[in-house]
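Fold this complex.
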Amino acid sequence: MTYIIRTHNLTKTYKGKEVVSEVNMKVKKGEIYGFLGPNGSGKTTLMKMITNLVKPTGGEIEVLGEKLNPTSYEVLKRMGSIIEYPVFYEKLSARKNLELHCEYMGYYNKGAISEALKLVNLVNIEKKIVKEFSLGMKQRLAIARAVITKPDLLILDEPLNGLDPVGIRELRDLFLNLSRQYGMTLLISSHILGEIEQIADTIGVIREGKLLEEASMDLIRSKHVEHVELIVKEQAKAAFVLESELNIDKFKIKERDGLIHIYDSNISQNDIIHAMVTHQIEVGSITKKSKSLEDYFLQLIEGGNKDA
Amino acid sequence: MRSLIKLEMRKMNIGSMLLTFLYINAGIIGSFLLFGLDEEATAEFLTSYESVFMLMEIFIVAAFVIYASVLLSHMIIEEFRDKTISVLFMYPINRKKLLVAKVLIISMLTFVFVILSNIIVFGSFAFINSTFHYISEPITQDMLTERAFRTVLIALSSAGMALIPLFFGMRKYSVPATITSSILIIAVIFSSTNSSTNLFSFIAIPISLGIFGFLIAHLVITKAVKADF
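Structure:
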């Protein structure tokens, strides 16, 4: 497995307070890594350390196969990024901003600018000065700037801020495209799961500077599928009926009295009740539980604040 | 480094900069003309080439050191304040080089402006003098050589002095602090006990201030290279 980003016990302390503490993060090549955490959880600081804007207090970072040190500059050539919020030379035109970017990156491909602007759906604004842009437009322009040089690694800090729903969808598709078509690796942060849930291959959850969970979306989904909760008088008999009559093998008998979790979404509750009744098994209750991913992450993120 | 300087220049508005340069020169020449209108002022300022040279020097150095603080604000302070510097620092370019390029441009411009302005203003004054005859003493070759020598030294010193406001401006990324400090520096240097001498008359002082300015730039750059953004 090739890792594009790997951190080892990465820590940053500001004035005695740990903003990022002992983070071990792994971003695989070609994947979209959704970086989830509430505001002020250390997402931006961590991303700044990866782009070498902020120097770590402790730990190590490996990016694109190179260990970062304060004078790592070459590796930045292969990265595109938006950090915090989109900043531009406001008095210059959109095109001029992008031209300067290409020059500084050492990238000389004449068509690239128009191509990138088309990619983010910004048309007929090249001559306009950035000051007149709305936040959504600036966000798009920043994404154009980040992808213009076709970097291997894209680091996008809250790239969907300030966009309308249509825009969010467009850009989500763009991110998928960049990952699937160009093989770029994307690290996208957000404080809203819904924004990145559909496109992320892996999710990392950070709270108060600590990486709480890092798992593939598939794994998380499989752990949190919908299920039917069935409460019956005779657990063993009910289990037998489920297996033999309804051909369900994905269920779990819980220790709590009479509780059975059924993980087969194809079977309707009606069928289950019907089968139980025909076999004279008394049904206490039957409910469909769908704990969404959102709930799960909210719980994870807010876990520490609950007691407060 | 040369390409970095070129890139920096592309962010500047060269046209308005040249215009400012011309305005400043016109202003200085204009004030000489004004002095010539008034007999008292003529008697005080336009009696000998030496006093004209001194007056020119004050005007020119003051104008361009203050103008340099405006350039410092645009090219350095505002980049830090508006965080465009963090975009620059994500480029595959040594931070030190990026910042040295900026400082170099401002120093070089100040140097060139001071020299050119001296030539333009003195040329104009000589022309005006040939019509109005404020000063009757002839201009000697020795005088010009000595003047040229001093002008180069003063221009070099100004190039360094122009950077001193960085020290005040970079503390809170404040444009007003940058510009105000440059005005204060000028005010202190040119406050004179009498009309024929000021701190600047002793060549060691401008030269030390120039060196001091470059040291400050060095300090500011070293700090920024290590800092987090």
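Chain A touches chain B through 29 residues (CB under 8 Å).
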